[in-house]
Write a structure and sequence with these properties.
Layout (H helix, E strand, L loop, with lengths): L2 H11 L5 E3 L6 H10 L3 E3 L3 H15 L3 E5 L3 H15 L4 E7 L15 H5 L5 E4 L6 H13 L5 E7 H5 L17 E5 L6 E5 L1 H4 L9 E3 L14 H7 L2 E5 L18 E5 L2 E5 L6 H10 L18 H9 L7 E5 L2 H9 L4 E4 L9 H11 L5 E6 H4 L5 H8 L4 E6 L4 H11 L14 H7 L3 E5 L2 H12 L5 E6 L9
Parallel strand pairs: 1-2, 1-3, 3-4, 4-6, 5-6, 7-12, 8-9, 8-10, 10-11, 13-14, 13-15, 15-16, 16-18, 17-18
């Protein structure tokens, strides 16, 4: 048995369902070992996509997602996506190939200080040193990814460690330690709140105190949270669970002076109750949407208003659906207007580009669920080739592009800060991305007017293969209340 076999069989023994991978010289022994270990490899088109897929898998299933890339530039391509997973508190492991240990310092092929590069973006990052301990390295990485506040872990595996013969026992799978059991009392508070960070949002809460989940970089300005800013100003006691008083909460200034604020990590039992009517007031504030949205209409000849687009997309979402939302201004409209029981967004990191990998992982995790990805045209360009991955693996999710032919979030910054006469450098082409998707083997359509929209979405939902509906939309700023 080789080190690569020990690694692959350790992952298989941990009931890893899929490894999101991109091939390269340093990891070909793992590709070979995966056959005998019966380990499923999902081969993608860019290394960052492996991390985004592992990230979404971790968020949706609670199981650590596994990304596998080659060393050197492959590792470098993957690392940037770790920041999104770290901010989203997503359990995942990035396994990177690495130059051989016995060649380090001699100018080895694609030699790089990989663990050092990944370390700031991970809970832990190290390089395997022996084939005999490689199984233990993998088990440790899986445990750390799930422990405490979940997050990404990186392990580099040198090529000579993978190829070396080894006689080793499979390590026992290490269960993460039980989370700290805490009790927090809101005794005496009349208008208490719990604000849950990304990982805490994924647990089931049973408490008489309102719980607000925060996973958007727009924080108190997140249009999906309605008038949350008003609620925070009225609270007299707030418990932040896996959430800091960071920029999304205006570094604490989102709360009224005198509000008691405490930060904790771990599993928290809440004691206390709110005054009558407080929970209903919080729910109403979060659900608020401007009444004029109900009558928002597109111009007869197009382009389509984002609200009208979302009204049609909502018809595709049922009680088992998964909504993926990504991008700048258009992504905010989608998050504010659409409801689904499960969603994956780009998260507190504020990155864009992850929607298609997220949707692919969601469909793999829940093949019977309707998965709809909402993204802007700028975002689509990051990973459009993952539509090829979706076709190859039969991942029949629906992609809906809000195409305003612009990097609109930055364009809106220019308008506010410098004026229309100095808004420049952000135009894109009104590309027919539906045709692009069709060329990659998807069902693809391009929509320019409202009457075309409903029928196009209906055809996409019945296509029996990955589908992309590209909709020309008005160039609007993100919703504000």
């Amino acid at each position: 048995m080789r080190g690569a076999d020990l690694l692959a069989r350790t992952l298989a023994a941990a009931r890893t369902r899929h490894v999101f991978a991109l091939s390269g010289n340093h990891v070909m022994p793992i590709f070979d070992a995966a056959l005998d270990a019966k380990l499923s490899l999902v081969h993608v088109r860019h290394e960052a996509a492996t991390v985004h897929m592992a990230d979404a898998w971790g968020r949706l299933t609670g199981e650590p997602g596994i990304a596998l890339v080659t060393g050197g530039p492959g590792h470098a391509n993957a690392v940037g996506a770790l920041y999104t997973a770290l901010a989203a508190q997503s359990p995942m492991v990035l396994i990177s190939g690495h130059a051989p240990l016995d060649e380090l310092g001699k100018g080895a092929f694609q030699e790089m200080r990989q663990a050092d590069i990944a370390a700031p973006l991970c809970k832990a990052s190290w390089t395997a040193q022996s084939p005999a301990t490689l199984g233990a390295d993998v088990a440790r990485a899986l445990r750390i990814a799930r422990s405490g506040i979940p997050g990404p872990v990186h392990l580099s595996v040198p090529n000579d460690v993978l190829d070396a013969p080894v006689e080793a026992e499979f390590p026992l799978q290490e269960e993460p330690p039980s989370p700290k059991s805490l009790t927090h009392s809101f005794h005496g508070a009349k208008r208490p709140l719990v604000i849950a960070g990304p990982a805490a949002m994924r647990r089931r809460w049973s408490t008489g105190v309102p719980v607000i989940g925060m996973e958007s970089p727009r924080g108190v300005n997140d249009p999906a949270l309605g008038k949350v800013a008003d609620v925070l100003k009225r609270a007299d006691a707030v418990l932040l669970v896996g959430k800091r008083r960071d920029f999304t909460l205006r570094f604490g200034e989102a709360f009224a002076p005198g509000c008691a604020v405490m930060e904790v990590e771990g599993d928290v039992e809440i004691q206390g109750a709110a005054e009558p009517g407080w929970a209903e007031q919080v729910r109403a504030a979060l659900a608020f949407r401007p009444p004029e949205w109900r009558s928002a209409q597109s111009r007869p000849q197009g382009p389509v208003h984002p609200v009208e687009l979302c009204r049609e997309v909502q018809k595709l979402l049922d009680q088992d659906s998964i909504l993926v939302s990504d991008g700048g201004e258009f992504g905010q409209w989608a998050q504010a207007c659409l409801n689904a029981p499960r969603r994956v967004i780009n998260g507190p990191a504020g990155s864009i580009g992850s929607a298609l990998p997220f949707a692919a992982a969601a469909k793999l995790a829940f093949p019977d669920a309707a998965v709809v990805a909402m993204l802007g045209d700028g975002t689509f360009g990051f990973h459009l080739s993952e539509l090829d991955t979706a076709v190859r693996y039969g991942l029949n999710f629906i992609t809906v592009i809000g195409n305003d032919a612009c990097w609109n979030a930055e364009y809106q910054i220019q308008l506010r800060a410098y004026g229309k006469d100095r808004a420049h450098g952000l135009d894109l082409l009104p590309t027919r991305y539906g045709a692009v998707a069709a060329a990659l083997g998807c069902h693809g359509e391009d929509v320019t007017k409202v009457p075309e929209l409903g029928p196009a979405l209906e055809r996409a939902s019945r296509a029996g293969k990955p589908a992309c509906v590209n909709v020309m939309v008005e160039r609007l700023a993100a919703p504000k209340y």
